[in-house]
Design goal:
It is built from seven helices and no strands. With 161 residues, it is mainly α.
Length: 161
């Protein structure tokens, strides 16, 4: 019995170390991608792409350039704000559930705006990012970091096709 527990514990430790390594690699990829995109967009302090929670602001600042919403000036603060709100208010019965629902919606909106700005496959990247529970999003952002910015004319032509 003790041997079985030891084997399970060892397996758990190896899986945890493996997932931690994957997370670190994805975080570094996202940081380099956001740094590069922020420099291209003229967003100051692009190095914040390496800082947890601050990288959400950089993502929002990049997405703001693509947004056509009337509240586009708040886009950079939407994702870090809702994540901070989930830490502070997430334990409250009704508010916690609303924040739990709103977080992936806001994250998806910002990802879509970034993908739409730099790729013709925005919907595909967004769907695959959600199916993978967000693991593919840093990879996709890293892949599109060198793409040319799409103009509104390019996007309209893609939407009609």
């Amino acid at each position: 019995m003790f041997e079985a527990i030891a084997v399970l514990f060892t397996a758990f430790i190896f899986i945890a170390i493996f997932l931690l390594g994957i997370g670190i690699i994805l975080h570094i990829l996202l940081g380099f991608a956001l740094l590069h995109l922020a420099e291209r967009e003229g967003i100051p302090n692009g190095w914040l792409g390496f800082v947890p929670l601050a990288n959400l602001y950089i993502m929002g600042a990049i997405a703001q350039k693509q947004s056509k919403a009337s509240w586009k000036e708040y886009v950079p603060w939407a994702l870090p704000g809702i994540v901070a709100a989930s830490f502070v208010l997430g334990f409250l019965p009704l508010i916690g559930e609303l924040i739990f629902i709103a977080t992936p919606v806001v994250y998806g909106y910002i990802l879509y705006l970034i993908f739409e700005r730099y790729s013709s496959q925005a919907v595909l990247f967004l769907v695959l990012s959600f199916i993978s529970f967000g693991f593919l999003a840093p990879i996709f952002i890293f892949v599109i970091r060198n793409n040319e910015r799409l103009t509104p004319k390019d996007i309209n032509q893609m939407n009609r096709a």
